[in-house]
Amino acid sequence: MSMKYALVTGGSRGIGRAVSIRLAQMGYYVIINFQRNEVEANKTLALIREQGSDGALMKFDVGSKEEIQSILGAWVEANPDKVIEVLVNNAGIRKDNLMLMMPDADWDSVLKTNLDSFFYVTKALVQNMMAKRFGRIVNVVSLSGIKGLPGQVNYSASKAGVIGATKALAQEVGRRGVTVNCVAPGFIKTDMTEAIDPTPYRNVIPMQRFGEAEEVASVVAFLASKDASYVTGEVIHVNGGLYT
Ligand code: NAP
């Protein structure tokens, strides 16, 4: 049986690693994108192989249109028989500061990494999904992009931008069997939240704890599956009940 292909951006750590493992369990050959951390990316690959599947590393900066085109674009061109049918736009960064103190560079880099990446990575893959009449695009956004969080003007804007783009693209590609959805985590235990003390949040999160990466990955896996065939343009919250 020929392999089915998936790409997870930021697959080296955190939520992206947990998603990669779930996709491997679903029988996908998982292409693990990362930016710097090759050691961790290789650990994800080893975990994928433990599931009896396979994968490969693909290093590029999702915030660089040039790298996306020269590395991912080149792979697509060189492998016309291997259509990536699941894309999880997961890589993301935060650089928090009050807006008045926020360096212009932190606005630019967060928007590039979190929002421009959606456009250029998806553009490289969506045409082949449409031709195949099957595709699953899942974008990892954030509660911050829905309610806005002080200190995250850049991050909230980037995630809200992806939500709007998701709803628009879903309407463009639905007739070709391609779905586009978002998963919006609240506080999840990863390197990104390592410095945040969960104690004060216990009272405001109804489930009284931070979530696990696997709890986000299971929702991504559902949206990537055939079971979610009539779900598109949607945002599913994975936040332990924290909305305010
Ligand atoms: P994380 O543990 O900090 O991991 C970030 C991942 O993104 C790493 O694999 C990293 O690669 C990759 N990455 C960062 N910048 C990149 C770039 N320019 N090009 C390619 N890869 C890049 O983060 P996480 O918590 O798993 O977050 C994953 C996603 O969930 C993000 O979009 C984040 O905004 C979102 N999210 C997280 C939380 C949370 O509480 N953790 C909540 C809401 C939303 P390297 O290993 O090479 O650095």
The count of helical stretches stands at: 7
Strand order across the largest sheet: 3-2-1-4-5-6-7
What number is the mean pLDDT? Answer: 97
The CATH architecture can be given as: 3-Layer(aba) Sandwich
- Low-pLDDT segments, ≥5 res: none
SSE run: EHEHEHEHEHHEHE
CATH class membership: Alpha Beta
Largest sheet: 7 strands, parallel
Name the hetero compounds present.
NADP nicotinamide-adenine-dinucleotide phosphate
Rg (C-alpha, Å):
17 Å
Distance between the termini: 47 Å
- Name the overall outline: globular
Protein structure class: alpha/beta
Level of helix content? 40-55%
CATH H-level homologous superfamily name: NAD(P)-binding Rossmann-like Domain
Q: What is the CATH T-level topology?
A: Rossmann fold
| Total strand segments | 7
Percent of residues in beta strands: 15-25%
- Overall number of domains: 1
Itemize the secondary structure elements and their pairings.
Elements: E1 4-8, H1 14-25, E2 28-34, H2 38-50, E3 55-59, H3 65-78, E4 84-89, H4 104-132, E5 135-140, H5 144-147, H6 153-173, E6 178-185, H7 213-224, E7 235-238
Parallel strand pairs: 1-2, 1-4, 2-3, 4-5, 5-6, 6-7
The protein binds NADP nicotinamide-adenine-dinucleotide phosphate.
